[in-house]
Amino acid sequence: MQLLRQRGDVWDDVLNNADLLCSVNQELVALDTQLSDGDELGLFPPVTGG
User: Fold this and answer.
1) Which of 38, 4, 39 is nearest to 20 (CA)?
2) What is the full DSSP assignment across the chain?
3) 20 inside domain
4) What is the pTM of this model?
5) Which of 10, 16, 32, 48 is the most exposed place for a label (fewest CB within 10 A)?
6) In whole angstroms, what is the distance from residue 33 CA to residue 20 CA?
7) Does a structural domain hold residue 7?
8) Taking CA 41 as the corner, what is the angle to CA 37 and CA 45, rounded to the nearest 5 degrees?
9) The pLDDT value given to residue 49
10) Which of 42, 15, 11 is nearest to 29 (CA)?
């Protein structure tokens, strides 16, 4: 995640959102999970609706 944060303020803001969900290889994981080469990363921003 640190590499994404270095890409700019927009990424840093998104990754600092407490409601952000993260998946690696289609399994929900903690935001501090270390990635390996070939991993698929999914980021799910908070969603509202009604």
Assistant:
1) 4
2) -HHHHTT-HHHHHHHT-TT-EEEETTEEE-TTPPP-TTPPEEEE------
3) yes
4) 0.65
5) 48
6) 14
7) yes
8) 160
9) 65
10) 42
Query: Among all chains, which residue has been given the structure tokens 């290889």?
Result: 25
Q: Which two tokens stand for residue 46?
A: 């908070």
Phi and psi for 43 in degrees, rounded to 5?
-115, 130
Q: For the chain, what is the radius of gyration of the CA atoms?
A: 11
How far is 45 from 22, CA to CA, in rounded Å?
9
How far does Cα 37 stand from its chain's mean position?
Answer: 16
pLDDT digits (tens, 9 = 90+) for 3-49: 777 888 888 887 777 778 889 999 999 888 899 999 999 988 766 66
Task: Assess if residue 50 is contained within a domain.
Answer: no
Structurally, the chain folds into a number of domains equal to 1
Is 49 inside any structural domain?
no
